[in-house]
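User: We ran a pulldown and think these components assemble together. Before we commit to crystallization trials, I'd like a predicted model of the whole complex to look at. Sequences follow.
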Amino acid sequence: MSPSPDQENEPRIAGAGAPEADGEAQAATHVGHILPAALRVSARKGFGLVDALQPTVIKAIESSARSDPSRLAEALRPIFGIGIRRWITGGLSGVAQGINLVVFSVFTLRGWKWRFESMRTGRSFPEVVRRHTATWPVKQVLLVHRRTGLLLVEVRSPAFATRDADMVSGMLTAIQDFVNDSFSSGRAVEGDLETVEMGDMTVWVERGPAATIAAVLDGKAPPDLRPAFSEALTRIHGRLARELEEFDGDAAAFERSKPYLEAFLDLRTPGRSMRILPLTWLLLLAPVALLGWWGFDFGRRAYLWNSYVDTLKSQPGIMVTDVGRVDGKFYVSGLRDPLASDPAAVLAGSGMGGPDVVMHWEPYQALHPDFIKARARAILNAPSTVSMDLEHGILYLGGTAPAAWIAQAGNAARGVAGVSGIDTSALRDEYADRLPQWRKYLDMLNASPGIVVVEHGMRDGKFHVSGLNDPLARSPAKILQECGLDARDVVANWMPYQALHPDILAERARQMLLPPETVRISFQDGVLELRGEAGHEWVTRATALAAALPGVSRVVSSDLVDRELRAIAEISAAINGEVFRFLKDSPDLWPGQKGRVEGLAANIRELLRTGNRVGQRFAVEIVGHTAATDSEKTDLQIGRALAARVQDVLAMQGLDAAVFSTRVERVPPAGAGAQGEPGEKANFVSLRVIRPE
Amino acid sequence: MKKKVCMLGGFGVGKTSLVRRFVSSMFSEKYLTTVGVKIDKKTVAVDGGAVDLLIWDLQGEDEARETPEAYLRGAAGCALVADGTRGATMDTALAIRERVRGVLGDVPFLFLLNKSDLGAEWDLGAADVARLDGKACAVLRTSAKTGEGVEEAFAALARAVAGNVSGTPALE
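Assistant: Here's a predicted model for the assembly, 865 residues in total across the polymer chains.
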């Protein structure tokens, strides 16, 4: 049977036959049995046990601290935890109050007013603030014996009415015990019930080893008040330790603790009027908000970075080999095929800031089918009309391409990584099908006046033609249509020019001169000939323009009739043929001649109108002919009278007198006889169209 | 002089009624069913002096519920109450006494046999009372209904906790 732990810890006895040792062991067992009860009795009866044990206990603690500090620290940890928590809470609250005071003094009108008061009175600013805002939050303080729950001392402000303090302290103790029993569940808990709040009222409980302070507060108390309670409690314990230990119901001795408690009743502290200002909240919360924003931004950037790296990894031709952070920046490195997506471009679309990312890429050739085909296309310089497929390393080419390219494609593909063979059987010569139409098109272009083909050929799967094209020639596009070629297969480049082909020249003359239908234009050996008839204006303009046409060395218009000039000649002839005769020795016209006057007047008016149209002025000279039989003077008078007579007759037809001029011409008798009637003198009047200077 | 005393006993023995007969209570009796204790105060004259009794009226006990030790700590004396019409409550009171002694040590115990007004139903005999010999500073018959023995009981308790115990336990 193995010994029990208790037995093992008992002092060892040297031998069964050692009576001294045996007696010592028996004595130890006996003392050990009664020692706990003896200690309790001694403590209760006040036999000076504390004084007796103190040196030993202190030495034991010192020895324990030296041999195993962690053990003592562990034992004290709950106490430290409570103390540190209180210190931090009080400190933070103090910081808030301090910031609030600064904000209040700087940013409020009342703050400046009180600051002025501070300068005027010489008091410190915090003191002035306290004087204006102080309240007395501590209404009642109870000192309660912890073991019995009996009230030791009570102090309270005069205006504060309360129930019997003895019963209140008892009930408060009961409630503390109740809370401890209810929530500790048999475990050792750190601390005790510390605060009871009812609306604006607060009960603070500060517990010491033998006594408890319970303080009734109205409203918010300054954060440094609780440490003050703790300090007061410590002092009371120090001063009344024995009385607390030996308390048996007589509380008279504790009157000495009243000054410590009454000090709290005189406390003044900033009250409700010194609320935390919004700006103070802002200053207090700003670091929290900044920290929150930083955390959010950190998380967001990490998420974006992971998404970016995932995107890179999914890109063909990119192999990510290393990801991390260097000097506060994101870092990624790996291999990249030059044909792969640009990581910087992917980054730009990821939402990450470019300056935050460092990347390093080594080039390599990826054997992704798309990249092999892209490289093959680049190396072969394949036309866009060529399609590519890759299967088991064989590059299959399809579509159309120039024959020369097809011929060399097989050899060129050997240098492409990832291509072991090439199949061009599906490739077709891109021009073979359309060659007849192309030749026909060129022939028709060459045969067309006004079109000069300078260059033609086949390139990139298309037919190319360039040259000169007179706008008056046939349209090359129409010729293309006639040949059956698709306009999309032909790239044409035509420069405009003026052709000197006779047909084109004649056509150009027609388009320039715009001849009426009565005019024919022909061109031969540099001579432009105009035939037919036209108005004076067109004739004048056309003959001038025609001479300036390129390729025209001479203009022939001899067979071109000017209608207005022809009419003027015909009318002038009619007027010039008019003769008026008179009865003998009378100014009266021969009978029947008056009827001709209207026709003559009409001719004269037409002459004047036509003359205006062609820019020529005309006049009519009325010549009075007299037979030179009488004296010259008489003849002249007669001649003038006859001419005046005709002028009057014409003036009566509405003709302007300025149109006319008169003259007298004496005629020999023989001549007169030939012109006049038989037996009469040869007096008559003739008319002549003249052009005045 | 202030003394904490506890009223102890089984359920329904009349502890609270006795206290109510003795003192006009300040706190509501609902504390008994919530916190498990109600505290009253009565100043009792003892030999020319006065003792302030802080009476902790504790919720009745049974097998399922024991009074928390914390409520007992610091008590200078206890009044154990039994219902004279139910003999079993005497056993409960004696069991409580033993447990309280374990916590408080040798403090004065006063034994109250309550409901003396129900004489016809009385269930305790001389043999039962004899069981209390040496276990109480006084044994009294009380009636919360008629007030019989109530004042005397608390006066005896006050004397006992004030350290002025006189005479031997006697059933009046």
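The domain at 502-557 of chain A is CATH 3.30.1340 (Histidine-containing Protein; Chain: A;). That may be worth checking against your pulldown data before setting up trials.

User: Thanks, that helps.
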